[in-house]
Amino acid sequence: MPLKDYELGGWRDALLPLGGEKWCEALFERVEAAYAQGSPAVYPPKEQLFTALRLTPPEQVRCVVVGQDPYHEAGQAHGLAFSVQEGVRVPPSLRNIYKELQSDLGVTPPTSGTLTGWAEQGVLLLNNVLTVYDGQANSHKGWGWEEFTTEVLRQTVRLPQPVAYLLWGRAAQTKAALVAPESSPYPRLVLKSNHPSPLSASRGFFGSRPFSQVNDFLAQQGSAPIDWGRAGATAEIF
Predict the structure, then answer these.
(1) Which of 22, 171, 175, 212 is the most exposed place for a label (fewest CB within 10 A)?
(2) Which residues touch 167 (CB under 8 Å, ≥6 apart)?
(3) Which pTM was predicted?
(4) Mean pLDDT in consecutive groups of 10 residues from the start of the chain, 238 residues
């Protein structure tokens, strides 16, 4: 299925020209073939591939969170970085995000691992790579998603509203030069830290206070703060 046949929400006009480029054609041919073969399974489900773009149109973007790639266990990924489907036990990386949220803002950890509440407030939850094979972390690295998400971020750089960027982990930080404050004439904040996974959270993610810094930046620009305690519906996580 080519790019033009996917639901891209308000990003459609900006991203559709990519569909005619050879690398993009090759990417979606490979992605379509992977979904079609069925084993190993590909996550997120194809109909949820661009959830982040559908829930957070360009004009609403206030913060961009960049991660590595989707969760690679069944029933977790649904097209939002770090988010899991409703009713799914919260994975370790998101638990650590919630711990930092509590430490930073005193917010009681949300009772859901579904971050649609963030997305609906203008938080674009974007991974560097947008698909993955079941049980094989970062298995679609190098397929062409990196170029695709670079273009998404390039579009955010052009937005006239204030935008903060949270680059969590090495893969996300490959985008740092692209979104650097000097790359845009509009107000920008870029915060880099280690990934919130158990392997690296204690080496720079904990104590980084990203949520208060984003809200302080937005307040300085006359924008409303993000309610980081608003996630999805209830699911016991601790």
Answers:
(1) 22
(2) 66, 173, 175, 176, 179, 190, 191, 192, 193
(3) 0.94
(4) 90 94 96 95 96 97 97 96 94 96 94 94 97 97 97 97 96 95 96 95 96 98 95 44
Phi, psi of 126 (to 5 degrees): -120, 125
Does the active-site annotation cover 227? no
Q: What are the phi and psi torsion angles at 205 (to 5°)?
A: -80, -50
**Which of 210, 225, 118 has the alpha carbon at shortest distance from 162?**
225
Q: Would you list the DSSP string of 90-127? A: PPHHHHHHHHHHHHHH-PPPPS-S-THHHHTTTEEEEE
List phi, psi (to 5°) of 189. -130, 130
Q: How far apart are the first and last CA of the chain?
A: 40
- For CA atoms 203, 130, 97, 119, the dihedral sign is positive
Q: Which two tokens stand for residue 19?
A: 């569909």
Is 223 buried (19+), middle (13-18) or exposed (0-12) by CB count in 10 A? Answer: middle
The active-site residue, picked from 5, 69, 104, 134, is: 69
**CA dihedral for 190, 194, 197, 201, sign (positive or negative):** negative
Beta bridge partners of 136: 133
Q: What's CA 16's distance to the chain center, in Å?
A: 20
Burial, 112: exposed, middle or buried (Cβ in 10 Å; 0-12, 13-18, 19+)?
buried
